[in-house]
Design goal:
The chain has 341 residues and is of the alpha+beta class. It has one domain (4-139, 147-271): Sandwich (Jelly Rolls). Helix content is 23%, strand content 21%. Strand 1 (27-29), helix 1 and strand 2 form a beta-alpha-beta unit. The chain is globular, with a radius of gyration of 20 Å. The chain starts with 26 loop residues before the first strand and ends with a strand. Residues 28-98 form the Non-haem dioxygenase N-terminal domain. Belongs to the iron/ascorbate-dependent oxidoreductase family. It holds the Pfam family 2OG-FeII_Oxy.
Length: 341
């Protein structure tokens, strides 16, 4: 690995000048957090955002931009390493492990250079907790969820699959773009945790499918922001009150197709022993959301660790088969794994 003094400063590319069909997303400004009045207003704004769009911005979140840029620089330095060095960090994908460096297998999105090195999308996942705690009985939610319920499902000192991810989408030539039948880098999908944080990425490519309209919209880069989306586990825990957001990565607009797209993301997931049953909440009960798909179908409710491994193995198997998942394919009893177009 390069010495810290060898890591170059990261420079963000200019934003697109094209007039795209941008999503109108709420901005959760945390500068107003900390008082009862401010917290109540933010909570109401957040609930509306996650139920109508599933995506929102967060600003004034307390991480200086220079520290964010340092992470982009580290990611860029990793991808500039020789192939033989990166191959040391390939995980056991067939068994659902994702920590480390991996490449995609979809032939329409893969180009081979340096032997087996696929250039179009490179993913480096960095686990933030390396030593799991001793085995624990499955964690079952309290009879009535307290205000700090979700905070305690994501404790920093316990083992889960939360991680930081560097994701590089390599630029395509005009001939390669012409071979893509759908104009996508990555098809429509949902994330499997609770929320995903995307640090501002100026190359326009992220598209979201709005809950209310079903329309695909571009997510506009907002200065000093995180772009946040809701995921599978949060949907399970709220009985579908909060939906897992479908999103995809499209080819950038014409004025940005000459550059690579380096993403910096944080995937937040509950502790591995959390049972993904609907929490006991008066809000959910008043709205009529009291059972998720596992409970409604009479299926065993998986833990977060079980669901994570099963979905990751399914994702990897589909990548190996060079195809999107079949609609309605059940990967956990009661849950169907899908990609969306």
């Amino acid at each position: 690995m390069p010495h810290a003094t060898q890591i170059s400063q990261y420079s963000h590319v200019p934003e697109t000048k094209e007039d795209l069909d941008w999503a109108d997303l709420a901005n959760i400004d945390l500068s107003t957090y900390g008082t009862d009045e401010g917290n109540a207003a933010l909570a109401q704004q957040l609930i509306e955002a996650v139920r109508t769009k599933g995506f929102f911005y967060v600003t004034n979140f307390g991480i200086p931009q220079e520290k964010v840029d340092r992470q982009f620089a580290l990611g860029q330095a990793f991808y500039e390493l020789p192939l033989e060095e990166k191959l040391k960090y390939v995980p056991d994908l067939d068994n659902g492990e994702y920590n480390g460096q991996r490449w995609p297998h979809h032939p329409a999105r893969a180009r081979l250079t340096e032997g087996a090195h696929r250039r179009d999308r490179n993913i480096c996942r960095v686990p933030l907790r390396k030593s799991p705690r001793p085995p624990q009985p499955p964690h079952r939610p309290r009879p009535r969820a307290a205000p700090d319920f979700f905070t305690k499902l994501h404790r920093w000192d316990t083992h889960d699959e939360s991680h930081l991810r560097y994701m590089k989408y390599g630029k395509f030539s005009p001939d390669e773009i012409a071979k893509l039948d759908d104009g996508l880098w990555s098809g429509g999908h949902t994330d499997l945790g609770t929320i995903t944080l995307l640090f501002r990425q100026p190359v326009a490519a992220l598209q979201i499918r709005e809950h209310e309209t079903g329309q695909w919209k571009w997510a506009k880069p907002l200065d000093g922001s995180l772009t946040v989306n809701t995921c599978d586990a949060l949907s399970f825990l709220t009985g579908g009150y909060i939906k897992s957001t479908i999103h995809r990565v499209a080819l950038p607009p014409a004025d940005q197709r000459h550059v690579d797209r380096l993403g910096l993301l944080y995937f937040s997931r509950p502790q591995n022993d959390v049972v993904l049953k609907t929490i006991d909440s008066p809000v959910l009960q008043r709205a009529g959301f009291t059972q998720n798909e596992f409970e409604a179908g009479g299926h065993p409710v998986p833990t977060m660790g079980e669901f994570t491994q099963r979905k990751q193995k399914w994702q990897q198997a589909k990548a190996k088969d060079h195809q999107y998942a079949k609609d309605g394919e059940e990967i956990v009893p009661g849950f169907k794994g899908q990609y969306f177009k």
